């Protein structure tokens, strides 16, 4: 795999802009996601918003032959859920919406869980733990730390709560390309893996399962589900290693202190 690309100050500014725009997509979705709409309704709304309101490009569309602008992963779907007109959101569902956006040649990538009003306590606990696990990983990022430190922090938090961490899918470097070096595993041993240095940009996007970590891919070739059909939750941010720590480039308004 190619070496990790260190971004210049000018490139980082463009990454910040892409991240800011992507955060606004989720702000729009906060008022849109509800019982009774289909995952294709979500796809179409996001495409319209990114293209027409934000004057940007939905980077997922056309990537690896994918036809849609986001992944819609409901309940036992771990990742890469395909929008369609037959999947209607129900009051007990949880859904991960994973969106990419490119502006001025640079891509940001983020995902958020939406918990519908009648979702059960166990579903809510899983979603909360997955969010906390992502932040445990983010808080580990600083110059001199390693990718193993990041993965270990995520794994320790998830497993302490009785959940498992999906191993087949990982975070990734990001910039001019959606997927750059390095691979960012969500499990690992402290002090191992690539050393973090200022100017690195990558995603942290743990997938946490209620049951076992094993997954399988459906016949559509995209949709990944838990092998035991138990629930899965995922959150994702694009981060920058700064001189003193970490900056979350896709930080949403409700996450600002």
Low-confidence stretches: none
Largest sheet: 3 strands, antiparallel
Topology as H/E string? HHEEEEHHEEEEEEEEEE
Portion of residues within helices? 25-40%
The coarse overall form would be: globular
Which range does the strand content fall in?
15-25%
Q: Calculate Rg over CA atoms.
A: 17 Å
Structural class: alpha+beta
Distance between the termini: 37 Å
List the strand order in the largest sheet.
Answer: 1-3-4
In short:
The chain has 257 residues and is an alpha+beta fold. 28% of the residues lie in helices and 24% in strands. The radius of gyration is 17 Å and the shape is globular.
Explain this structure to me?
- By secondary structure, this protein is an alpha+beta fold.
- Helices cover about 30% and strands about 25% of the residues.
- The strands form 5 sheets. The chain has a 3-stranded antiparallel beta sheet with strand order 1-3-4, sandwiched between helices. A 3-stranded antiparallel beta sheet has the order 2-11-10, with no helix packed on it. A 3-stranded antiparallel beta sheet has the order 5-9-12, covered by helices on one side.
- A hairpin with a 4-residue loop joins β13 and β14 (about 245-250).
- The longest helix is centred in the N-terminal third of the chain and has 22 residues, at about 10-30.
- The radius of gyration is 17 Å and the shape is globular.
- The model has no long low-confidence stretch (mean pLDDT about 100).
